[in-house]
Amino acid sequence: MSLPSSQLSDPTPAARQTYPFTLNDLPYAYDALEPHVDQKTLQLHHRAHHATYVKKLNEALAKHTDLHSRTLAELLAQPERLPAEIRAAVRNNGGGHLNHDFFWNALAPAPAKTPSGALGDALSRQFGSFDDFRTKFSDAATRHFASGWVALALENASGKLEIVDLKDHEVLTPGTRTGLLIIDVWEHAYYLKYQNRRPEFVEAFWNVANWAFAVEMFERAGAR
């Protein structure tokens, strides 16, 4: 059984796609995040890494026509219901597609340095201050072992903000958490510019973190 669309918590375009899945254009030019995210890395990351996840996801689902009407969020919400022979491929490549689409939207050229309104208040209230939140998020991203993601999410049932550590291409479970912000800590996200200096990449992330997007997602979640 799939989740009703009203229960899906990730409003980024990829979450709503159905087969055949497509690679969305970035919402900015490849050089728009310079110098914090360099053009060469962004092109390779989007055109090669992200595109490959989309291609392999379509290959896994091609013969399973009964699944073609399900959105990506619906497929990833209940992976245990997928046929065993494609379960890992859909989880890994679908998760890569969903998380990357989230990541591109969570970045912006010359964004606000802090969130406004209710989200800013909630972060200060829950973590002590915005600076304390930022330190905790940066620590989680820096310390994350091997490949994966770190996200700021709203737990829908409790209304609690969480810093969530995601291994490989795990996703925020659709219907239970609303993603607000995410950082990719796979090495391909930063290695051309920062080599093995992940802490420098994490620090640079705050110069392009799209707080307007995070505020919008937070307000949408509160309106449901």
Could you outline the blueprint of secondary structure elements for this entry?
Elements: H1 13-16, H2 39-61, H3 72-77, H4 84-105, H5 117-127, H6 130-143, E1 148-155, E2 160-167, E3 177-184, H7 191-194, H8 198-205, H9 211-223
Helix pairs in contact: 2-4, 5-6, 5-9
Q: Would you report the number of β strands?
A: 3
Query: What's the tally of helices?
Result: 9
Instruction: Work out the helicity level.
Output: 40-55%
Q: How much strand?
A: 5-15%
Main pleated sheet: 3 strands, antiparallel
Going across the biggest sheet, name each strand in turn.
2-1-3
* Mean pLDDT across every amino acid position: 93
Backbone structural class: mainly alpha
Large-scale geometry: globular
Specify Rg, calculated over alpha carbons. Answer: 17 Å
- Detail the poorly predicted runs: 1-9
Task: Report how far apart the termini are.
Answer: 22 Å
The ordered string of helix (H) and strand (E) elements is HHHHHHEEEHHH
